[in-house]
Amino acid sequence: MAPLEARHTHEEFAYTPLQDTMANVLFDGNWAIMEAVREKDTKRAAAIVGWTLAAVKGFGVKLTNPGGTEAWGWGKNVSSITDVVPYFEVTPGEIIDTMIRATEMLALPHSVHIHCNNLGLPGNYRTTLDTFDLVPDLNRKRQTLYATHVQFHAYGGTSWSDFCSKAEEITRAVNEKPQIVIDMGQVMFGKTTTMTADGPMEFNLYRLHHNKWSNHDVELETGSGIIPVLYRRKNLVNSIMWAIGLELALLTKNPWQCLLTTDNPNGAPFVRYPEIIGLLMSRKYREAEFATIHPDTEHRVSLPSIERELDWQEIAVMTRAGQARALGIVDIGKGRLAPGAEADIAIYPLKIGEVDPGREYERVIEGFRQTEYTIKRGRIVSRRGECLVWGNNTTIWVKPKISERYDMAQDPAFVEKFDRYYTVRMRNYPVQEEYLKRNLCIETETEL
């Protein structure tokens, strides 16, 4: 969520029934943050983050191509975590390190949530590994860094002609670093739409596909782009991408460290989750699908040699409990079944002891397509696809407790620059709670 456009995001949330919502706030090209990074003032960066989250009713910190989105405003990009962002004299690595430490200062429920630099480019796995090397182990309750849609960041090769998987190298690093959690970003074949704050990446995609492309800049904060794509089964690059996502999940030893996603809708719409679950639980299904993709894929990936089949418990972690722990919302009753939990439950028409997912993957896929019952806060809200209850969702947001000394609304330099450069007045920037029909505010004790 771009802070300046948060009001519209909350309006969208308000028209989404039942589904609880939260928004990670984009700080990847935030001018005030980059100035604090340049001055090596982590406390000031934390104060800016805390004020912004409370003002726009955000949940956590999102970095998308850190530094690159600002460079894109000048028609440029960054190609490594040591490149210098134009006009700010900071590097993506410095932004990432400062924001990790600022997030911990604020005791936010969720860690920094990062879309690494160089998404979608051959050889980008090196940038991903360099980013992972920055991450200290700072939190006992959760990860210190959440790296999203890592399939798009696990590419080897020097060009599209020798493009290959580097999932083994990525998962080796993840397996050695409990402070890092990743998600798959699984690609599935067919049409979808990509939308992201990574403006330069979307322009690169436009040059590859020549589909309609939209580009957007959010003043002083971030940017975005959107373009439709078609992932083709017989396209070698697309086939390798499909295999990489599965490799990440199957080669990560701890299911709590690799969560199931499609980066909806960028890799595929979320309605493809049942098929992905089937692929992870059945080697037989993977072999059947592999036989239909580009024949040269087997020389570029390790998927055919992976025997592992995930079990029901691992799928439950990767689709539910793992997300709750990674987001830091277990303490408010999410992602667990225990006294005091919220009783958000999905019941599927599958009996574990009667289905062998390795052989009967069709039953697994069909069983996960629709719940028998969906229970929200202990109340049945749908049965066999029929919605029984329409009600408000809950928007979860964070308000760090910050001393008056670090209150950015009272900081003369911050207020002066805000009034000079923004097209809105500071008093009109915050989102009023009236935009949140039902909300849950998590207050955190900070070091400020």
Automatic annotation (TrEMBL):
InterPro entries: Amidohydro_3 (IPR013108), Formylmethanofuran_DH_asu (IPR012027), Metal-dep_hydrolase_composite (IPR011059), Metal_Hydrolase (IPR032466). Keywords: Oxidoreductase. One of its GO terms (molecular function) is oxidoreductase activity. Residues 3-381 form the Amidohydrolase domain. It is an enzyme of class 1 (oxidoreductase). It comes from hydrocarbon metagenome. Coiled coil: none annotated. The keyword Oxidoreductase applies. This is Formylmethanofuran dehydrogenase subunit a. The keyword Oxidoreductase applies. Its EC number is 1.2.99.5.
